[in-house]
Design goal:
This protein has 87 residues and is mainly α. The chain has a domain of 59 residues: Orthogonal Bundle (Lyase 2-enoyl-coa Hydratase, Chain  A, domain 2), CATH 1.10.12. Helices cover 67% and strands 0% of the residues. Helix 2 packs antiparallel against helix 3. The longest helix is centred in the first third of the chain and has 16 residues.
């Protein structure tokens, strides 16, 4: 998909993959779910149809009113790790 591109020696591959998975899984669940939905829609079509655009816009709107967004912002301002709840 062109999202990530790293070249690593064999002995670093497992640890790097685990670190990357840990970092990704530390993000807000709603964001991860939405991004997976958007990526899947993009992979199905060369051009998004109106139905997919509506789904993407709905997901984006949900992000901006989510408790996780507020938690992420507060955690950033408070210089702490966020505690996401998927809400």
């Amino acid at each position: 998909m062109g999202l990530l591109h790293y070249v690593l020696p064999d002995d670093r591959l497992v640890s790097f993959t685990e670190e990357m998975a840990q970092e990704i899984s530390g993000n807000a669940p709603l964001s991860l779910k939405g991004m997976k939905t958007i990526f899947n829609a993009l992979l199905r079509y060369k051009k998004l149809d109106p139905e997919d655009m509506q789904v993407i816009q709905k997901i984006a709107a949900q992000f901006f009113i989510s408790e996780d967004l507020k938690e992420g912002q507060n955690a950033f301002l408070g210089k702490r790790k966020p505690i996401f709840k998927g809400k």
